[in-house]
Structure formats: structure tokens, C-alpha cells
Amino acid sequence: MKNFLPIFLFLITASLWSQVVKMASIEGGTFVPLYGATSKKPVQVDAFSLDIYPVTNTQFLKFLKKYPENSRSRMKGIFADKSYLSQWESDFNYGAANLSSAPVTNVSWFTAKKYCECQGKRLPTMDEWEYVAMADEKRIDARTKESFNNYILSWYEKPKTYANPVGRTFKNYWGVYDMHGLVWEWTADFNSVFLSGESRKDKDTDRNLFCGSGSVNATDLMNYAAFMRYAFRGSLKARFTTKNLGFRCAKDKK
Fold first, then answer.
1. Sulfatase-modifying factor enzyme-like domain spans which residues (predicted)?
2. Which of 50, 144, 199, 218 could pair with 223 as two cysteines, CB 3.0-4.6 Å apart?
3. End-to-end CA distance of the chain, in Å?
């Protein structure tokens, strides 16, 4: 009995930790991805759950206190570059200038992945993220709506949206906030579309996506908005951190 008690308490604590964040239930379905797709065939997305909001400074601070090896001063360079949490005042203080309810940014793919795994979750795949992100308030797929795409593109032009609190953008069809209008977000397979100077001559996909050349083929707002996302993802490496890049977690449905 004495040996069982610590294990029981650990399970209870882990369960409470994983239940802090509300998740939306996403039904499975198919959709045709835009930029980054190798074919125009529909992609199957299985049912899964997704965090309603991006991970906040407060939530990430709790994670760091529990797993201090991921703090700024102890982070190894192979897992995050020098900008890792550079906006924070110290290892365990995000500072008065950073809202507790604002999304945590300047976090590498490695640490975002670790955070989700410590909650029994994972990062969403790129197809899962795009599937949820194509919804507006009423439609599962609003990508052909001019007003929806204008909203996305107008956000691209706004400065410092990463400093805003989560949950201030619209609630989409699935009950998820901030897919557009707050921060860019890591996906598990962000590098499934590679952009490199060497590969531009080898594949049409890479040539079309590299830097600004892809916008030539983005004949409408929908394609251009998607191009910007794929181009941004393709410029990243797992250890990179930027002030407008955050993340949220996903979970398989049993």
C-alpha cells in the first residue's frame, strides 16, 4: 500500500495537469490542401482533439517549473537558438511587459513538442492544422470566401499581434480560437515541405514556394494566404525561435 500511494498521487497529478486546457473535438473528414500538396487528391484527416487556444505564457511557465531543464539558461543550443524565450525577464519570470494570457512565443519545435508530450498530447500535423484553420464561424471550409481570406491577409500586415491575449479572435466552426489573427504555430511535420536554394531547380513545388516567387502562381486570395503559411513553415528549422511563432497541442481520439 505504501508503494502504491506515490504512484496513485502521480497519476492524479498528471491527470489534473492534462485537464487544465480545454480541447475542441474535431470530426474526421477530407480536404484538398493548397500549397505544399504533392497532388490534388483529397487528404484524409482522422478525428482528433485540438486545444481551443494557443499555449500561454502562464501555462508555459508552469511547465518550466515542473521541467526546469527546459528553462532559458539551461536550454542546449542544439534544441533552441539564442532567441529562446528572449522576451522573458528571466528563467521563471515572463515579466510585466508580457501578458499572462498572451501566447508564449520564441519557443522552438523541440520544446513545443516536449510540452505537448508532457501533457499526454502531441503537436498537430500540418494537415490537421490546415483542416481546422480553413473553417470560419459557420462553415467547415470557408477558403473560397473573400471576406475570410481578406481577414487572414489583413492580419499578416498587423504588427505585434503576438502580444495580445488568446481568445480575442473569432470562434470557428469547431469551437477553436486564434487559428488566424494572433501567432503562427508549429506543426509536428512543419518541415514536410522543404524550401532550399539547392532544391529550387529540382522540383517545381520548391521553386514555386521559395521566397516570393510562389505568389506569382497564387492567383487568388485563398492561394496567396496558404502560400504565406507554407513559405513561412518551409523557412524554419526545429531549433529556430521567433517572436510571432507559438503552438497548441492536439490529441488522438481513442
1. 22-251
2. 218
3. 31
